[in-house]
Structures are given as structure tokens and as C-alpha cells.
Amino acid sequence: MRTSINELTYNRYGFVVKKTIDKRATVRNRIRRLFRSCIEEMIDEIVPGQDMLFFLQGKIVEMKREDLYNEVHSFFKEKHLLQ
User: Fold this and answer.
1) pTM summary value
2) At the top level of CATH, which class does the domain 2-78 belong to?
3) What ranges do the domains of the chain cover?
4) Least confident piece of the model among 2-6, 38-42, 58-62
5) Which of 46, 64, 72, 82 sits 20 to 30 Å CA-CA off 52?
């Protein structure tokens, strides 16, 4: 994950899934949608004014949504990006 401070009152997010994870666009898009839904669920808790770029890895495909949410939440907590 890369972050930088923006001068805005809201956050912007970007998601990168390499073709080496899976050549099929449907699988790569599913990974993006899963991750985005986890972030949307905790959007009110995240500190505003950040640009965030996530480099997603293939192990997300095998994870359940609950496990992914818990992992993302603990990651944000660890990086001090939650209010």
C-alpha cells in the first residue's frame, strides 16, 4: 500500500491487481470489488485526506469476505489510518 496526503476532505483509492495473479479480467475485477466493498464498509472510520494505492495479491481470491474485512481493518489500525 502506498499513501500520500491530499489537500481534500475525502479519500481517494486505487487498486492494482497484476495479470500474473490471473489472466482473466473477471477474476481480477472480483478481487477489486471484494476489497473495495471492505473499504466502503469502514469508510467512516478512515482518516480523511489521503490518497491510497493498494497492490493486491492473489491470496485474496481464496479468502472469505469476513476474513478479508478483518485483515484490512487490522491493517488500517496498524498503519494508524483509523479514527
Assistant:
1) 0.86
2) alpha beta
3) 2-78
4) 58-62
5) 64
